[in-house]
Amino acid sequence: MMGASAKRKRDPMTVVDDRWLHIKYYGCKNCGKKYKWKDSLIRHHRYVCGKDPQHSCPICGIKIRYKWLLKKHLIDTHEWKIPKGIHI
């Protein structure tokens, strides 16, 4: 069996140091959150940063930021079944 240090020497991708990859991150000036893609930062500004969640569960009242996550919450938590022909 191979030890952890031997595996690290054999596989250079085990440890990744961002300084050597020269990856540019886009940072939010309001909260400091960093994103690899500019589009992700734009989405963060539009829907997340400094904003309250827009959707609430009709059953338990929990506030949820995204519509798809509300749908997942309803199915997973409340075992909600979506009738055929209804799009959410």
TrEMBL record:
Record PROSITE patterns: ZINC_FINGER_C2H2_1, ZINC_FINGER_C2H2_2
Alphabetical list of SUPFAM superfamilies matching this protein: beta-beta-alpha zinc fingers
Molecular function via GO: zinc ion binding
Keyword presence, Metal-binding: yes
Record InterPro entries: Znf_C2H2_sf, Znf_C2H2_type
Pfam family of the protein (one): zf-C2H2
Domain C2H2-type: 26-53
Top-level taxon: Eukaryota
Swiss-Prot/TrEMBL keywords: Metal-binding, Zinc, Zinc-finger
Entry protein name: C2H2-type domain-containing protein
Taxonomic source organism: Vespula germanica (German yellow jacket)
